[in-house]
Design goal:
mainly alpha, globular
């Protein structure tokens, strides 16, 4: 398998990209080109173009890891001060373009392999597009972005390219180190925003969100305690994998510390669905391996010791936890939402009400229950359509909006893609990734019972992890004979890119 021909854009192509970015900035946010920004804005665009030009030469694993790291700020770029410039989505697009346009970094990567599950995913996306066009939600910002980030266009694409992006141990180690680093940031940020010192919380918009977050739960950069909980659990799984795989003692200590911090941060979200999901994911993987069964009870006792100790040392945390556990309002809200959702499914069982239509169409399906108060439609009180709440059940949400046909397409794509990655054949080096995928998948599917659509990061992490666990595309007979030569060429490409 020899290196493929590559394409290096000429200098005038990068100049055109810079001018296009400058024109787009002027059209979308003219304030970024006024006053002192008249100099800073074009300089930032120039730096960005030069960075993209450099990334074009790198192996796509670097770009993918950068995209994953930046996705934790998805939707908050305006609050950070970048005018809503979606850096994470641009890097995701760049990963795809690196393969489509044969960037130098993919010269030694395996070719993309389209499987039957990708065709099912394509069918599911086409179905949702038709649903959104029919009800007119495709042109709305919420409907369009949720289709891209949450239902799965971007994650499905990443599942397609991830086996070629992370084909070897070097690339997967880079992904593992990235997740450990993200876990350290998310874990300590959750501790700082919940227990202090608040001055260490960065970016500062997190504290502004905390001021309005019910119960002051840890939401991190996601502005969502559910996304924070899944992300910290996923990073804790990566940290455990790093502890097992890394050989340097100091790095192993770091991995243990990140795992502990992430588990504690997962608790600080005060989300009961997250607690159940994390516990279920841990139990399933522990029971599936002999080592896990041996360490299950000590691990549970250690986590309980840390959490109980924190509750005893912090009266504030103990009060928040007690209030959250005893809060029945959220239970009543979910009961009301579930009843309304089931009525909507009964009204339009096959095709549903249309993509992103629950909030606008659900009010008339709420009914006063005999044993608990009416809540769950809007934040605060019933009957305020200005701030409707999402349906806190992902499975039911898809059934309401897409009908049973669309819900089954989504669920079949998820189970086929993830299950295929877990059960596929591969080298022994892929086994930890498959076990980790089981843990985060169980957590994801459990959280989906109690909460609405996930934020972009959890869905992206799930599908990238699945692609990495699936492994590289099989080599041909000729490729098997040239495997050693390709490995040498790939190492040389990495050294050249990182110089």
């Amino acid at each position: 398998m020899s290196a493929r021909a590559v394409w290096r854009p000429p200098w005038y192509a990068w100049t055109f990209i810079g001018l296009a970015a400058l024109a787009l900035t002027h059209d979308v946010d003219p304030g970024r080109l006024r006053g002192h920004w008249l100099i800073i804005g074009p300089l930032l665009i120039l730096v960005g173009v030069l960075a993209v030009r450099r990334l074009w030469e790198f192996p796509p694993a670097l770009t993918m890891c950068a995209a994953i790291a930046l996705t934790i700020f998805s939707g908050a770029w305006g609050q950070i001060g970048l005018g809503g410039f979606p850096l994470d989505r641009l890097l995701i697009v760049m990963v795809v373009l690196q393969f489509l346009l044969r960037a130098p970094g993919v010269a030694h990567s395996p070719r993309l392999q389209i499987r039957n599950v990708h065709l099912l995913m394509c069918l599911a996306v086409m179905y949702v597009l038709a649903s959104a066009v029919t009800v007119g939600t495709l042109t709305s910002e919420a409907g369009f972005l949720s289709l891209i980030d949450q239902f799965g266009i971007a994650p499905f694409l990443m599942f397609l390219v991830a086996p070629a992006v992370f084909p070897g141990q070097r690339e997967r180690n880079l992904l593992l180190a990235t997740l450990v680093g993200i876990g350290a940031y998310l874990g300590f940020t959750a501790i700082f925003e919940s227990l202090g010192p608040h001055i260490l919380v960065f970016p500062r918009y997190i504290l502004h969100v905390d001021a309005t977050l019910p119960g002051e739960r840890a939401g991190g950069p996601f502005q969502s305690s559910v996304a924070e909980g899944f992300a910290t659990f996923g990073c804790s799984v990566a940290a455990v994998m790093a502890f097992v795989q890394w050989r340097e003692q100091r790095r192993r200590y770091l991995a243990v510390a990140v795992a502990v911090v992430c588990i504690f941060a997962c608790f600080l979200t005060l989300e009961r669905g997250v607690w159940i999901g994390a516990g279920a994911g841990t139990m399933v993987v522990a029971l599936a391996t002999q080592t896990g069964r041996r360490w299950l009870i000590p691990g549970v006792l250690a986590c309980a010791f840390v959490i109980v100790g924190a509750l005893l040392l912090s009266s504030t945390l103990a009060s928040k936890t007690s209030n959250r556990v005893s809060n029945e309002m959220t239970v009543w809200a979910r009961q009301n939402q579930t009843s309304a959702g089931l009525r909507m499914v009964a009204a339009r069982p096959l095709l549903g009400f249309g993509w992103d239509s629950y909030r606008s169409d659900s009010l008339e399906y709420f009914r006063q229950a005999a044993t608990y108060p009416m809540s769950g439609f809007a934040q605060g009180s019933y009957g305020t359509p200005e701030t409707p709440l999402p349906l806190h059940d992902t499975y039911l949400s898809y059934a309401v909006e897409l009908g049973l046909v669309g819900a089954l397409l989504w669920l079949s794509s998820l189970l086929w893609g993830i299950g295929g990655a877990i059960l596929s054949r591969g080298s022994a080096a892929l086994r930890p990734w498959k076990l980790g995928l089981i843990a985060i998948t169980v957590c994801f599917l459990t959280i989906a019972i109690f909460n609405p659509y996930q934020a972009p990061f959890p869905v992206l992490l799930l599908w990238v992890w699945a692609g990495a666990a699936l492994g590289r595309a099989p080599l041909s007979a000729r490729g098997q004979g040239a495997k050693t030569a390709v490995g040498i060429s790939s190492d040389a490409a990495w050294r050249a890119a990182l110089q």
